[in-house]
Amino acid sequence: MAITYAFCCLFFSALNDFIFKLFANSSSGEGGTKKRSCGLFVSIVGLIWFAFTIGLPHKEGTTLQATLLWGFISGFFSLVGNILLIESMGYQSAGVSSTIYRLNMVLVVIGAFLFLGEPLTPTIVAGVVCAFVAVMAFIPKRTAETAAQDAAKAKLGFTLAVLASVLRACMGLSYKYAFSHQADVNGVTALNAFCWLAGGVLYSLIREHKLSLPTKHDWLIGLTSGIFVSGIVFFMAWMNACGNASVVNPIAQMSFLGTFLLSAIFLKEKMTKQKMIAVLFGIVAIIFLTI
Q1: Do the Cβ atoms of 248 and 239 come closer than 8 Å?
Q2: Could you read off the pLDDT of 213-244 as tens digits, one per residue?
Q3: Exposure of 85 by Cβ count < 10 A (0-12 exposed, 13-18 middle, 19+ buried)?
Q4: SS3 of 151, please?
Q5: For residue 20, what is the enclosing H or E element?
Q6: pTM for the full model?
């Protein structure tokens, strides 16, 4: 069942990454100015997500203390990691930022082996290696156009994406640890949503120095992403509760394959030989991780 949850998480992640790309494009104005607030967007997503999770039943045998502790810890990782991912797309291409973000699967496998005592079998290693190759193959080649970009901004975007990737790995590992130490799955996800709701407001006030009323477009894109994020976290929580983090998390993180297809269809991104090789390695990785 854990594998099924992982594939459901992959599906919702692919859709939400595509929404993040659309938001990043709409939030950048001329001269680097921002037309839309990242904090406000995150808060709307958190509100929708919280509405989906607040009424879910709690599992017997769990403790309130563990749920509160790990709900806020994983919520912090989730909030900051996703804010950094969205912000990185303002300085670096969305494709590069998303690709770097998905490298967290390698950190999850290493962390699960070192800290959670999960086995590291030859098939898991082969799957992770193929997944790593697939992600790296999606990184665009350097061209004269990219070389002319502002080096400082490109470096900042890369750094933010790397930090986001590390935090995403911490979130996956904290989920696995939490649910093996009597934290309630639905309670943890509801607290994660609250972190997004409150954290987005704080980010708007502290970082963006403004708190404006959302427009119809803000509500539409926030509602859409909120539904997808609710699905992501729900299935992420249950896949970690039921299966090995070193297997289910890498499968879920192969969502960039779906995002690639969506981008090719709706954003008319070119289907290059490099990307086709990446897709093939991604498929092989999923096969290794599911056998």
Answers
A1: yes
A2: 888 888 999 999 999 999 998 898 889 888 88
A3: buried
A4: helix
A5: helix 2-27
A6: 0.83
